[in-house]
Write a structure and sequence with these properties.
Layout (H helix, E strand, L loop, with lengths): L8 H56 L8 E2 L10 E7 L4 E4 L3 H4 L8 E4 L3 E8 L4 E8 H37 L1 H12 L18 H49 L4 H29 L5 E7 L1 H14 L6 E5 L6 E4 L1 H18 L6 E5 L3 E6 L6 H4 L19 H12 L2 E5 L9 E6 L7
Parallel strand pairs: 1-3, 8-10
Antiparallel strand pairs: 2-3, 2-6, 4-5, 5-6, 7-9, 10-11, 11-13, 12-13
């Protein structure tokens, strides 16, 4: 199962800032809409009152100039238009004396007291004159006011449609520029580990991140000190053991030459064999110390095929079994890597020596150097699955009676860990019935 999904600080900040801006704009638009509605009501109420008060003296003059018995008069419109405010003039008995062109469609109710009134669909204002004998009522549909408020509110809301993407873009750019030193700090930390425990740079970091950088550098310093102490102990111990072991082996060989054939010489041979194994063990400890060191990378990539040729030639001089090595190198010249050539030599030598020691006699050892990997395989007993992963630990050995220290694969694994490589071991050989294979993968290497 994969771990919990990581969340992005910049994405979360950008989203929350954009949502906050949108929410504040919505709140401001809502408050502005409420204030605008109140102001619109006051303006339209004032217009109703103004119309009624303007019509009243005109209606009185019009009525005085009429002949007796004249019916209700409709005021003709000046031109084609919609009347948002209409009016009607009535007498004391409620008869219509004068009205605007759209008053009949409004169905303005009669008998309204002077002042403002609101019905189910109208807002009205009534004014009386001449002791209540002339009554003027101006009216407006409530739907007109609602439409005006809606249009004003939409005029406030439409900018939000453009504001949200603009705000998101602006916040994203701001966060990207602001967090650029933090991202550089992150990449600097990610680069540590491939033999590089140097302090991460603290320049340009914001004040909140400076303590984090200091803590990381302090941790790297303590880690480097612990690794150097461990490697120094292993290297010094192996180095100091080499000279007395060589001296003891020389004295034992001299003793073997001086002793006559018999039990004493046999014991001397046993001691010489034990000293040789101890010498090889000290050599492996020196290699392990180098494998766990920080100098596993070269300054520039270099081809590794010549190094592999040298390793196999050196093994061929030391062991007749090495004559069975079948080496294959890619047609393009093989691998080009920034792995230190000495470290690659130790890596390849330990994998090949492991195959020589534990492979079935009189069967070939296959070594292949491709553009992105090194493969070493041999025939032999199958390693049980529960034992396979343990072989990468120091002093762990598989089901074999061959002489060895159990450090070869551990040294190879340590080099791969320190150089950022991947070591894959399998038994039996993929596609085969027996044997053991080790594949070192070099991700992202340059091709020659």
């Amino acid at each position: 199962m994969s771990g919990p999904r990581r969340w992005s600080l910049s994405r979360r900040l950008g989203l929350w800032l954009a949502l906050s801006v949108a929410a504040l704009w919505l709140a401001a638009a809502t408050v502005a809409g409420l204030v605008l509605r109140q102001e619109i009501d006051e303006v339209f109420d004032s217009a109703l009152q103004e119309v009624a008060q303007r019509v009243l003296p005109l209606a009185y003059s019009e009525l005085l100039s009429r002949e007796d018995g004249a019916g209700a008069q409709h005021m003709a419109p000046v031109g084609p238009h919609r009347e948002y405010i209409t009016y009607v003039v009535r007498d004391a008995e409620g008869r219509v004396l004068l009205q605007s062109s759209d008053a009949e469609q409004m169905a303005i109710p009669a008998g309204l007291a002077p002042g403002f009134h609101t019905t189910a669909r109208l807002r009205t204002y009534t004014e009386a004159a001449v002791r209540g004998t002339i009554v003027v009522t101006a009216a407006e549909e409530l739907s007109h006011r609602a439409a005006a408020v809606q249009r004003a509110a939409m005029a406030l809301m439409w900018p939000l449609v453009a504001l949200v993407p603009i705000a998101l873009t602006g916040v994203w750019l701001t966060l990207r520029l602001t967090l650029k030193p933090v991202l550089a700090f992150r990449y600097a930390i990610a680069e540590r580990g491939r033999g590089n425990l140097a302090p991460v740079p603290e320049q340009g970091l914001p004040e909140e991140m400076a303590p984090v950088a200091g803590a990381v550098n302090a941790l790297l310093e303590r880690l480097r000190g612990a690794l150097e102490a461990e490697r120094g102990f292993a290297a010094n111990s192996a180095h100091e053991l080499r000279t007395p072991i060589a001296a003891a082996l020389a004295q034992t060989q001299r003793l073997m030459a001086e002793l006559p054939e018999g039990p004493e010489q046999e014991r001397a041979r046993t001691i010489a064999g034990a000293l040789r194994r101890l010498s090889r063990l000290s050599e492996k400890l020196l290699q392990l110390a180098k494998a766990e060191g920080a100098g596993l990378l070269a300054e520039a990539p270099a081809p590794l095929a010549p190094v592999l040729h040298h390793v196999i030639a050196d093994l061929d001089r030391q062991s007749a079994r090495a004559a069975g090595i079948e080496m294959t190198i890619a047609a393009d010249g093989g691998l080009v890597s920034d792995l230190d050539p000495d470290a690659f030599a130790v890596l390849a030598r330990n994998l090949i020596e492991n195959a020589l020691k534990h492979g079935t006699p009189d069967t070939p050892i296959h070594v292949c150097l491709a553009a992105d990997r090194l493969e070493v395989s041999n025939h032999g007993p199958v390693v049980p699955a529960d034992r396979l992963a343990l072989l990468l630990r120091p002093f762990e050995r598989g089901p074999t009676g061959a002489d060895g220290s159990g450090l070869g694969l551990a040294i190879a694994a340590a080099i791969c860990r320190g150089a950022g490589l991947t070591l894959e071991i399998a038994s039996p050989i993929p596609g085969g019935a027996d044997g053991f294979s080790a594949v070192v993968r070099f991700p992202g290497q340059a091709r020659s």
